Automatic annotation (TrEMBL):
It comes from Bradyrhizobium yuanmingense. This is DUF4153 domain-containing protein. The keyword Ligase does not apply. Keywords: Membrane, Transmembrane, Transmembrane helix. The chain crosses the membrane at residues 36-59, 65-86, 98-118, 124-144, 151-169, 219-236, 243-266, 278-297, 304-323, 335-363, 375-397, 417-436, 448-466, 472-492, 499-517. Coiled coil: none annotated.
Length: 691
């Protein structure tokens, strides 16, 4: 009884749950609406719709089970609920500031990582916490007054439309798609997804940062997104390749859009007139789709970059809080939250982390006083933190010293460069206007965003880092969207901003989306993926070409619940060489064996011709099964390049090898069993003697 009462009191204190009189009439406290409630409804709905579509498409293909998608939605909904409830409780009601919001939300985001440590027991912790957060969050949003029913319906409809629209946009890009399990087996999967799934499998299963292409040869790479999605797969009990499309489409993108609205809401000037949730959610979304009109949309397909932006958006309100006049630099919750978030951002994407720490360091210096002593006192610990992380985890760390190459990124990749440069310049102009007319807090926020722009543009325009420059300069685009949306009334005037009614903003979003070729053609591209899958399957099985179908027929076959065409496709794919190889390796128990490796002789031509792009064949075992190869690079006779950094010995390509040589090679990675795959359906086992 006492424990139950304690739980009720904790819930009320953390989440503002309305109290009730035990043994008497229930006393309800009417809750005032917050602008972030609209964003929460929008995010919940978008995630739910994505989960439903993914489940409908996957069920005839043999899984995952529908409950997997429910669990994924539950995580996304709990993340949004946690941030919503604590924002209202700790920030809007002026209780404890934003740091608790940030730390609790991070804890929920990375809750699946418990599965790496305690396995299935994670559910004992996860289910009560996630269900409780969602239940309390939905109850508080529904009970809130001053949220017009029209806005409630608008958030639902907007979330549905976004869930459907972004399902097709993301899947049309061909990276981690709803058809990835089949595309991986027949060799049409984008190699980038193979690349990252292999890293995640080697990290979580063997504790090694490696691709698993020749034992556990070490590499350098930022690891956080691989750990998060790999743990997400362990928690869902699905292969890592499934976790990549489920985690991105059902969790990451809806949470990204919610965090964008949250950053706009909390970055607004303290004394600014409040705008409704529709403005806070839809205006930044309009600016985002406008940026997508001309630029790249890597945030939809690069899991590491998407996660780093999610964390960066979560951190922006903390920077605004630090910019307040009453801030004091001393050990406490704010500094702890700042350090933890900064480390997580850098582990997710080194470029974003470096930019974040540069802007944060300036803001702290500005607050302490712009003196040389304070600069040294702040710069030294930040450099000691940032530099080792960049050196250890950045795959491009060595390339930053190659020298200057003025505007190479602009010349070689104009479509990736110019839209982002324009957004950075808009941010500079907006920051200048706020600095000239804003309060002391607003001026410091503006200066911080200017430093962020400098951190984005200088590496992108001056360093010889090829397309990696995009992951610097695009951070400024996200900063522009947040800053312009938050300070729109100060920049343009409140009267002009009030002309942006929800109807006008939605109409603009629709028109811009239809004007974007990537979004406009996404339905056709997704339908063609299914047809390409069937064509490739028939070729591998030696069958004649099937009847031609229109894109609309293909789309119907893809999304119609229980359509027999998908069931037949799943059955036929199992007969392909890749399908047989997958089943052979799974039957050998390699998905669970932590001390096994695979060797594929060069004369197993069926295996070495599985992928359309021959560079993807070495990733088959490490990405799909989660087991490393020995001498796993493509046989030299095929003259195929690498889809990975050149970190391998000259003899890493597949070549005739004796059992003793294989065991010697396996021992270097502490592996004791080798499965020799002589043909897709034929494998023999070598038990190496322990040393």
């Amino acid at each position: 009884m006492r424990n139950g009462l304690a739980n009720v009191l904790i819930s009320q204190r953390l989440f503002g749950a309305p109290p009730s009189k035990l043994g008497g009439d229930e006393s309800h406290v009417t809750l005032t609406s917050s602008p972030i409630y609209f964003s929460a409804i929008f995010g919940w709905t978008m995630s739910a719709v994505s989960a439903v579509i993914c489940a409908v498409v996957r069920m005839p293909l043999g899984g995952p089970h529908w409950f997997v998608f429910v669990k994924a939605f539950l995580l996304a909904a709990a993340i949004i609920s946690c941030a919503t409830l604590l924002t209202v409780r700790f920030v809007e009601q002026r209780r404890s500031g934003y740091a608790p919001v940030l730390l609790f939300t991070l804890a929920v985001i990375f809750l699946p990582c418990l599965a790496w440590l305690i396995g299935a027991a994670t559910d004992i912790v996860a289910y009560p916490l996630l269900l409780g957060l969602v239940a309390i969050g939905v109850r508080q949003v529904v009970a809130a007054r001053e949220l017009p029913s029209s806005h409630f319906m608008l958030a639902l409809i907007g979330g549905c439309a976004s869930g459907i629209g972004y399902f097709f946009v993301v899947n049309s890009k061909g990276y981690a798609t709803v058809l990835t399990p089949e595309q991986a087996v027949i060799g049409t999967q984008h190699l980038d997804t193979f690349f990252h799934a292999a890293i995640a499998n080697m990290l979580l299963k063997y504790g090694a940062l490696s691709f698993g292409l020749d034992g556990l040869t070490p590499i350098k790479y930022h690891v956080l997104s691989h750990i998060w999605l790999g743990c997400f797969g362990i928690w869902l009990r699905v292969p890592t390749l499934d976790a990549y499309y489920i985690g991105t489409q059902i969790v990451a993108i809806p949470v990204l859009f919610f965090n964008l609205a949250l950053a706009v809401h909390l970055l607004r000037p303290t004394k600014a007139e409040s705008f409704d949730g529709a403005f806070v959610t839809l205006v930044p979304l309009l600016l985002l789709v406008t940026a997508d009109l001309w630029g790249w949309t890597s945030y939809l397909v690069s899991e590491s970059y998407c996660l780093s932006i999610i964390l960066l958006l979560l951190a922006f309100p903390l920077l605004a809080e630090i910019a307040e006049d009453d801030f004091r630099l001393r050990p406490g919750l704010q500094i702890a939250a700042l350090v933890i978030t900064g480390i997580l951002i850098q582990l997710s994407k080194v470029s974003v982390g470096v930019i974040f720490w540069g802007a944060t360091g300036y803001l702290l210096w500005r607050q302490q006083g712009l003196t040389l002593r304070n600069l040294i006192a702040l710069a030294l610990p930040i450099l000691l933190l940032v530099a080792p992380l960049a050196a250890i985890f950045s795959p491009d760390a060595g390339s930053y010293s190659r020298g200057f190459s003025l505007f190479r990124f602009v010349v070689d990749y104009p479509r990736g460069a110019w839209p982002n440069i324009a957004a950075n310049l808009v941010l500079l102009c907006a920051a200048a206007k706020v600095w000239l007319s804003g309060s002391a807090r607003d001026r410091k926020v503006a200066e911080t965003f200017v430093i962020l722009v400098i951190g984005c543009l200088v590496p992108a325009l001056l360093l010889d880092i090829y397309d990696t420059a995009y992951y610097f300069v695009n951070v400024g685009t996200w900063g522009c969207i947040v800053f312009v949306s938050a300070y729109g009334p100060a920049i343009l005037g409140e009267q002009r901003v009030r002309l942006l009614t929800p109807a006008i903003v939605i109409l603009a979003i629709v028109l811009v989306a239809l004007a974007t070729g990537e979004k406009r053609n996404s339905l056709k591209k997704v339908a063609l993926q299914l047809e390409d899958l069937r064509t490739r399957m028939r070729m591998l099985n030696g069958e004649s070409a099937g009847p031609n179908i229109t894109p609309w027929q293909g789309l119907f076959e893809l999304v119609a619940p229980g359509h027999p065409a998908r069931t037949a496709l799943a059955t036929d794919i199992k007969r392909t060489p890749g399908g047989q190889a997958k089943q052979t390796l799974l039957s050998a128990g390699l998905a669970q064996d932590r001390y096994a490796a695979v060797f594929v002789p060069p004369d197993n031509s069926a295996f070495w011709s599985t992928n359309v792009d021959c560079r993807g064949n070495p990733f088959f075992a490490s990405a799909i099964i989660g087991v490393p190869l020995l001498r796993g690079l493509t046989p030299s006779a095929l003259k195929c390049g690498l889809y990975s950094p050149p970190v391998y010995l000259p003899d890493a390509s597949s070549a005739p090898t004796t059992d003793a040589q294989l065991c010697s090679r396996a021992a270097k990675s502490n592996l004791t069993t080798v499965i020799v795959m002589e043909a897709p359906a034929i494998a023999r086992r070598i038990d190496c003697p322990l040393k």
